[in-house]
Each structure stands twice: as structure tokens, then as C-alpha cells.
Amino acid sequence: MGKIYGDATSALAGLLRDGMTIMSGGFGISGIPSVLIEAIRESGVKDLTVISNNAGIDDAGLGLLLHTRQIRKMISSYVGENATFAKQYLAGELEIEFNPQGTLAERIRAGGAGIPAFFTKTGYGTAVAEGKETREFDGEHYVMERGLVADLAIIHAWMADHEGNLVYRKTARNFNPVMATAAKVTVAQVEHIVRNGEIEADHIHTPGIFVKRMIALPPDFQKRIEQRTTRKHPAPAAAGSESPAVAGAESQA
Predict the structure, then answer these.
(1) Sheet order of strands, 140-146 included
(2) Which residues have CB under 8 Å from 134's CB, separation 6+?
(3) Which residues partner with 140 through β-bridges?
(4) Distance between CA atoms of residues 182 and 107, nearest Å
(5) With contact defined as beta carbons under 8 Å apart, do 7 and 215 qualify?
(6) What angle do CA 148, 213, 56 make, to 5 degrees?
(7) How far apart, in whole angstroms, are the C-alpha atoms of residue 81 and residue 6?
(8) What tens digit of pLDDT does each residue of 129-178 get?
(9) Nearest 5°: CA angle at 159, between 13 and 217?
(10) Between β-strands 150-161 and 183-194, what pairing exists: parallel, antiparallel or unpaired?
(11) pLDDT 10s digits, 55-75
């Protein structure tokens, strides 16, 4: 129906071409449009400029497109988890345009809002500002950054209705909402698709007007965890015994 497509390949049909610019949501591998990325890999398009906070990891996310050398340039904030990226960049095979993370988010937001450029203090006097216009306002120095607009945005959402209204879940929201507004066409992969009217209006994060196509993820879709950090919990006290803290409190009473 309407915006819902049967799979990632059909949802991207007619949208992909060599040399295009793609925004890809996610932070680390949280909230990444992994199924759509795999479809882009299978399409074989190349010489891509990809705007994303990071470059995925070696065997997941945008790392898949780096392995197949389909990406020519990355506009990113952090790429430290991807050895393939580092190898290609140091060999001169991949271009990189680094951005402070907040600046990258604002460049995308500005592009979606139709703002061609803005001034920020971040990066003034550093390599980030090289070749860019700078200006002084009220005794403070600023560097001009351009808004970003892509040919295509691929994003991940937790829930959607048939009109394309999207809801994101917790940290998986990250860059997805701003990217959804800043591309000529936005395609979303969604964990749960519900009927129109089942999402409360106040709960919508991205209005459906920004979303042109969607796919429903299969029930067995697995979201990977990039790094799992846990701590050992103390063993529970034996039945009838007192914890040291309680015993100590009683002895001081």
C-alpha cells in the first residue's frame, strides 16, 4: 500500500546511481539502516559520497560498502572503529571530510530547514576551519559551515504507520530524524508498521511528509550490539543472614 514496499531492493529501485550522495542514519551501529545498506551493496552503485556520523564497523553497517569500495568520500564525525576505513584513507583511496559531531548534526538540520549556511564557534582556529569563511560577532570568532542535502536518506525507525509517520526508540533515534528531512528522497526501514491513527500525534518524531518509501523488517530481524559492557553483581545474601551494611548499622545503634 502506498509507501510500503515488499523489500529493500524494490524500495530503492530507480533511486540509486553512481556518484550520488547518501545520508545514512545511526550512531555506531545503533539505529543503522542495515537492510537498506545491504541492498545498496548488492546494487553495485559506486563513487558514493556518504554522510554519516561514523563509518560503521568492519563487518557491519557502512563497513560493508567500504569493503566493496563503493564509497568514494565520507562526511563524518568519527571513524575510529573501522580498520578498513583507516587502511583506505591512509592509502589515498578514500576522501574524508571530518566534522565536529554537533556541527555535523547542525549541518544536516540546516539542510533540511533550507538554511544554506550558518556560523559556529566550534572549530575556529583549527584545521576544521581551513579554507572556510570566518567572521567576528560581538567580539567572538566564528567559522561558516554549509548546510548538507543528500540525494537519498536511508534511516531506521522503530514504528511507522502507513502514511510514513515515524517513531524512533531511545538512542536509535540519533541522526535519523534530521537526515529524514534533508534528502530529496527518504527511505525508512521500520521494525513495526501499524495502521493509520494508531500512533498518537504527539508521539510522532518524523512526519510522514518527509518519508517517501518504507519497508517492514522481518520478525527475526537482529540488532547487533557493537560493544557489550557489563559488571558483576554481588552474590545475594543467604536466607536469614544480614548484609554487612545492615549488621554494621545495628552495631552502631
Answers:
(1) 117-120, 140-146, 134-137
(2) 124, 141, 142, 143, 144
(3) 137
(4) 10
(5) yes
(6) 55
(7) 33
(8) 999 999 999 999 999 999 999 999 999 999 999 999 999 999 999 999 99
(9) 45
(10) parallel
(11) 888 878 999 999 999 999 999
Residue 244, in any domain of the structure: no
Strands 140-146 and 95-98: unpaired
Residue 75 is assigned to a structural domain of this protein = yes
Residue 138 belongs to some domain of the structure: yes
Residue 190: the pLDDT is 98
The residue ranges of the chain whose pLDDT is under 50 are 246-253
Q: Tell me the CATH number at 105.
A: 3.40.1080.10
For residue 139, what are the domain limits?
Answer: 4-216
Task: Please give the tally of structural domains in the chain.
Answer: 1
The C-alpha cell that represents 44 in the structure block: 553495485
pTM for the whole structure = 0.87
Most distant CA atoms of the chain, gap in Å: 77
C-alpha cell at 82: 573501522
User: Residue 193: which residues within 8 A CB-CB, separation 6 or more?
Assistant: 4, 159, 160, 161, 162, 214, 216
Q: Is residue 237 part of a domain?
A: no
Residue 234: partners with Cβ closer than 8 Å, 6 or more residues away: none
